[in-house]
């Protein structure tokens, strides 16, 4: 009986090894059979921007595919956003350009490619809001100063207030970072976050003589928004008026 048990154990072990090898071999066999490849680039697309769906045929299908149908759909609710039929050119590759237009919303999407007689293949990408707008308001406590002769410089200041909105929703954008800079002088603080109403502000200070035109530059950005917004050349002129002091000493 001992030999029977040993033989039975040996057979069981061999069967287990065979099953293990088969399980490992199945993916290898599958990957050895080259299939249609679909790639979306970039993987994160801002609303209003272009993206590319690339389709690559395996060698066995080259010359056999005349047309493909591409369906872009929302992964969350299954809604079809757009469908395109395109002829497949000679060779293995086809690149199609799409735009994430106003009919897109923030979320996960799929690009599904249908090839008649061979099935469907897909890749996934995300869409995010990619538009910002900003309005700059300048409050100038001091824009003109009269000084006696001999003064070498005058201190000026102004408050710069920036209002940031999401162009897609039209709502104020909170926690967008705003960077302030100027052609003359400096800002304090140099950057800050917008509040719940979409506002950020900083105080500019300049110390100089004579009339000068100051140009402000603002850059706004936020994670999830691919567009870096630049607002350039918002300017105003400060004036220094020299006045002489008359000698009023009596003789």
Features:
single chain, 251 residues, mainly beta, five-stranded mixed β-sheet, disordered N terminus, disordered C terminus
What topology emerges from the helices and strands here?
Blueprint: H1 2-32, E1 37-41, E2 44-46, E3 50-56, E4 67-74, E5 80-87, E6 93-99, E7 107-115, E8 119-128, E9 132-139, E10 144-148, E11 154-166, E12 177-182, E13 186-188, E14 191-193, E15 199-208, E16 212-221, E17 229-243
Parallel strand pairs: 2-8, 10-17
Antiparallel strand pairs: 1-3, 3-6, 4-5, 4-7, 7-8, 9-11, 11-15, 12-14, 12-16, 13-15, 16-17
Summarize the structure.
The chain has 251 residues and is mostly beta strands. Helices cover 12% and strands 52% of the residues.
Overview of this structure, please?
With 251 residues, the protein is mostly beta strands. It is 12% helix and 52% strand. The chain is built from 1 helix and 17 strands. The chain has a 5-stranded mixed beta sheet, with no helix packed on it. Strands 10-17-16-12-14 form a 5-stranded mixed beta sheet, with no helix packed on it. It has a 4-stranded antiparallel beta sheet with strand order 9-11-15-13, with no helix packed on it. A hairpin with a 3-residue loop joins strand 7 and strand 8 (119-128). It is elongated, with a radius of gyration of 34 Å. The termini are far apart. Residues 1-32 and 245-251 have low confidence and may be disordered.
């Amino acid at each position: 009986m001992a030999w029977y048990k040993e033989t039975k154990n040996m057979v069981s072990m061999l069967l287990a090894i065979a099953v293990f090898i088969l399980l490992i071999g199945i993916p290898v066999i599958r990957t050895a059979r080259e299939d249609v490849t679909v790639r979306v680039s970039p993987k994160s697309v801002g609303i209003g921007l272009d993206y590319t769906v690339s389709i690559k045929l395996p060698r066995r299908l080259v010359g056999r595919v005349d047309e493909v149908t591409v369906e872009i759909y929302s992964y969350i609710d299954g809604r079809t956003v757009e469908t395109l039929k395109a002829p497949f050119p000679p060779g293995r590759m086809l690149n199609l350009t799409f735009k994430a237009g106003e009919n897109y919303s923030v979320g996960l999407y799929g690009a599904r490619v249908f090839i008649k007689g061979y099935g469907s293949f897909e890749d996934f990408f995300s869409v995010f809001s990619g538009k910002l707008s900003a309005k700059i308001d300048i409050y100038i406590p001091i824009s003109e100063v009269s000084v006696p002769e001999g003064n070498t410089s005058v201190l000026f200041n102004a408050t710069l207030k920036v209002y940031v909105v999401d162009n897609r929703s039209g709502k104020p954008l909170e926690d967008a970072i705003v960077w302030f800079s100027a052609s003359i002088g400096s800002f304090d603080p140099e950057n800050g976050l917008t509040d719940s109403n979409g506002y950020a502000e900083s105080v500019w200070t300049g110390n100089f003589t004579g009339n000068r035109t100051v140009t402000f530059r603002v850059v706004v950005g936020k994670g999830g928004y691919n567009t870096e917004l630049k607002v350039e050349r918002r300017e105003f002129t400060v004036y220094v008026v020299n006045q002489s002091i008359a000698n009023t000493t009596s003789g």
